[in-house]
């Protein structure tokens, strides 16, 4: 029997919001079904209901003909549903093999059968076409490798229904190709696959059918994807026509002194000789594949890793930056991290306290007491400017949705009013509309005189908002492109630097 | 801050207050009002001071996600310093108290410096310093009871301010200052930031080393305050002082709503939780109950308080997930 999952008229409300409203979705064996929608449209909630994390308020769930909701993720696993979450659920101290068979280790006489375990893990990894030492600890793997282990974990349960929540968000193009081969193979074996992604190009490459959620409503239900153009899908997701953004070529004066200059910088992480200049009010894009060494360069400049050679010049003067604290308060350089949850936010802090953490010394009154009034003004300023959706400034950051958390994380560094801001992958996992607002914001900030280094793996993003683009490969700058914002020609020259090097 | 959001984050403290009031009234009514007599009320309040202060000494280290196992040993050494200064070296009371207080603060600072320098967890460092300090305490006090110091000190410990024992007033005042420190000063906010997310704190320009050092030093200073209260309220000092501090220093903040993972403080929660624990002690003494029944009940009550607040916290988090403000 071929696998089948039917979501019928499912509704779910949280206080103050109807997260899902009579949503329908039909997932059949042998197809890849795209689930699309902006952040907060209800995709994650739907997945959580299917896998028994949440209880639906109304509606039906039919799995292979059996009508019932699951009370826990374990029940869903037993019914043949596997889910690969956006957040990787692996145990860092366990080996690859142990993680792959974690949910259901093969037992003999109540003791784990190691030979069988190795066989199962090997089988799953072979299916994936992925070679790795089975005894390697997860903590020693790259993000992409972890993602693949996570998928192997789903394969080993022999699931007939696999839900992939943004599986390509953090893996390289080459690995994506491999993953798609696996998906195709699973599809031909009759597995039903639900594919959630923000990357529409990929969706068109791999998916057969599509469901679009908007504000908790399924505005397009299980239709053949080929019948819709990409722009139509975007319109359905956003609910209105996104006005085509005007292409603006900004004028950046590069005759003046650079605000930041790197001269033959060598780091303990493997950069041999990196040289670049950043000019006042410039948006300098830094493109590269995941693992090219861009974030590592940024973090080294800011004092997190050792500089072993070369020079950093700020406004023409050679400086030594000892720590992020030094960078922020003395040299006025900020760094917006790509990992908002792990590095960007204090989840138990209110929005107000999150925003003010970088400027505590500026909002003090007598005796070192924080002026809460001033603090609130600053918080409100950024809540308004970035359109952060909050009940009030005292709402805890941990209770906000992903896009809003990202905005809070960014606010903190904007509040510091630095001269230079290094922004690392600002729009990963962020919906179309939030992404557009981030792009506008970055341009605005540059117009106000802030000098920005934008690290991004999203080619369209880099081309849309940078003034100049540097290309990094294997810890080396391999190309520099003056951005004319002509997508076809710019993307061609960037890709050729990536593939041929210099 | 709106009224609603004020209570949104303070459910544990609210329920503890209710438990305290109900428990107190129950004790008063079943003891035919004996608890309300001047002497027993005085005893109740006097012996509340030390648990409050050592609870806070532990809380400030818990809030950076670490533990201070040396709380008791530091208190023991600190009181021993004060007592020997006065008894053996005839140092005046204020000077002796100050030296003991600074000694405790220095011990905390050493803990902090060791944690920062070795990059080991506070648990291991304070386990080590605890053992060393217990040795120091024994060398200072031996098996004697030191009580040959001016009687004006015990008199000071018995003073009242508008009916409240002076030492309890000191404890409460300390907690008010501490509460202000965490909620309203830049330094306190940075310490909490380190506890909440050390990596994010670092990227936001907070020095985690400094936060860790401050938290441990503050813990030492609070132990110093507890030592002053102790020496003022006891007739003499022996080597058992501080012996029962370590475990009880954990119960008040944890019941009071401080997360073991760090990032939060609950000063009022710690104070009121110390009060609840004190009530249980009183009940045991009042009814000369079978200790086994008492510890059984206490254990169940403590666990259910913690479980209840945890359940409520999770429910709130779950309800808030995916929360959005509807367009007006």
Automatic annotation (TrEMBL), chain A:
One of its GO terms (cellular component) is plasma membrane. InterPro entries: AAA+_ATPase (IPR003593), ABC_carbohydrate_import_ATPase (IPR050107), ABC_transporter-like_ATP-bd (IPR003439), ABC_transporter-like_CS (IPR017871), P-loop_NTPase (IPR027417). Keywords: ATP-binding, Cell membrane, Membrane, Nucleotide-binding, Repeat, Sugar transport, Translocase, Transport. PANTHER family: CARBOHYDRATE TRANSPORT ATP-BINDING PROTEIN MG119-RELATED, D-ALLOSE IMPORT ATP-BINDING PROTEIN ALSA-RELATED. Signal peptide: none annotated. Pfam families: ABC_tran. SUPFAM superfamilies: P-loop containing nucleoside triphosphate hydrolases. It is a peripheral membrane protein. The keyword Membrane applies. GO terms for molecular function: ATP binding; ATP hydrolysis activity. It is found in: Cell membrane. Residues 5-240, 254-499 form the ABC transporter domain. It comes from freshwater metagenome. SMART domains: AAA. This is Unannotated protein.
TrEMBL record, chain B:
It is a multi-pass membrane protein. GO terms for cellular component: plasma membrane. The keyword Transferase does not apply. The chain crosses the membrane at residues 46-71, 91-117, 123-141, 161-182, 213-234, 254-280, 292-311. One of its GO terms (molecular function) is transmembrane transporter activity. Its main location: membrane. It is found in: Cell membrane. Keywords: Cell inner membrane, Cell membrane, Membrane, Transmembrane, Transmembrane helix, Transport. CDD domains: TM_PBP1_transp_AraH_like (cd06579). This is Unannotated protein.
